Each structure stands twice: as structure tokens, then as C-alpha cells.
Amino acid sequence: MKTLSIAIGLLAALPLAGCISFGATPPDTLMKLEATTQVPVGQVQNSATAKSIVIGVPVTPQSLATQRVPVATSATSVAYVKDAQWTEPPSRLFARVVSDTVSARTGRVVLSPVQAVAEANDDLEGELRTFGLDAATREAVVTFDGALQRAGQPATEKRRFEARVPVAAIDAASAGPALNQAANQVASEVADWIGR
């Protein structure tokens, strides 16, 4: 009889299991980046007739190894924007914007590392140093240190890019559009540096 009452108690508790959450509540919407310059749908690209390039996902500091949006509150402290979250880590989103922009602006064929094994192509790596908001200046800031290895060249070129876009407030509604604009500005400058 005692075993039966325990079993009934456990069965009664089962519907509640779906209501218990041990993780943070996700925001109502997730943010993403979108390249403002893209190759038209249906356009064919061929690495036999155009230069190719591999664009790697940049490395990031630990503060960016998350889907949250960091806010520099001072030179030595970081907080995160409430209810602001990316669909995936910002380094991957940024790499995709750079890839789309480079392809559209330069006519280059952007290859994955696997596709590039048999190709003589350029290679862009780098570090996404800043990708968030600055509370003191009320700006969205994107800083990227690019390292470009051109095919057939022994030296590696390095260059720092930075874009700052004013934000009306340090909140989720302002963060997404401003960071998208700043990321696209940096991507355009990177594409111009790489060239045709």
C-alpha cells in the first residue's frame, strides 16, 4: 500500500516537471547580423576565373565567447545588456558578414578551408577584439584585427579596423541595429583592404 501511494505521488508530480526551468529565460527575440552588401541570388562564382579567399572565424576574448552583448562600463569592467542575445556567437555572425561583403565588393570567391585545399588562395584570419556597447561614449563598437596572407607572398599583412555607431540607449533595442551597422562598416573596409 505504501508503494502504491509513493507511485501515485510521483505520477502526480510528473506534469510539474515541464514547468520547472533550471536555465535563464531566453529573450523574446534573438538578434542576428545581416550584410548590407551581398552577391545577388543566382549569380555564379568560379574560382577558375576569379581570385579566391578563405575567411576564418575570428578568435575572441572570453567576454565575446558568449551570445550575450557586452557593455564596457569602465576600462576594466564589463556588464551585459539585459534581454539582448545573438542567435549564435558574434564571431561566426561577423565572419559571415565579412564573407558576404568581400564576395560582393571584390568579386572574389569565398571558400571554406575544406574547399580551398587544392586552390591557391588568400587567407584572412584575425581577432574580433570588441563587439559590444561602450557605456561612457554611448556607442556600438566593433574592433577587428585582421591578418591577411596573400597567395604566393611570404609576409603576412596586419591591420586594425574599428567602427563606432552612436546608440540612443544601452539596451537590446539599440544594440542590434547599431552593431549591425558597425559590423558592416568594418566588413566594407576589410573588403577594400583585400582588394580584387
> What structural category do the secondary elements indicate?
alpha/beta
What Rg is obtained from the alpha carbons, in whole angstroms? Answer: 22 Å
Count of β-strands: 7
Assess the beta-strand content as a share of residues.
Answer: 25-35%
Question: What is the CATH domain class?
Answer: Alpha Beta
Count of all domains: 1
CATH topology: Rossmann fold
CATH homologous superfamily annotation: ABC-type transport auxiliary lipoprotein component
Major sheet characteristics: 7 strands, mixed
Mean pLDDT: 86
Report the uncertain regions.
none
The CATH architecture is: 3-Layer(aba) Sandwich
Order of helices and strands: HEEEHEEEEH
The general outline is elongated
In which range does the helix fraction lie?
25-40%
Question: End-to-end span in angstroms?
Answer: 81 Å
Helix run count: 3
Short description:
Pfam families: ABC_trans_aux (PF03886). The chain has 196 residues and is of the alpha/beta class.
List the main descriptive attributes of the protein structure presented here.
196 residues; alpha/beta; Rossmann fold; seven-stranded mixed β-sheet; 3 helices
What does this protein structure show overall?
The structure is a single chain. With 196 residues, the protein is of the alpha/beta class. The protein has one domain: ABC-type transport auxiliary lipoprotein component (Rossmann fold). It is 29% helix and 30% strand. Strands 1, 2, 3, 4, 5, 6 and 7 form a seven-stranded mixed sheet that branches. Keywords: Signal. It comes from Sphingomonas longa. InterPro entries: ABC_trans_aux. Residues 38-191 form the ABC-type transport auxiliary lipoprotein component domain.
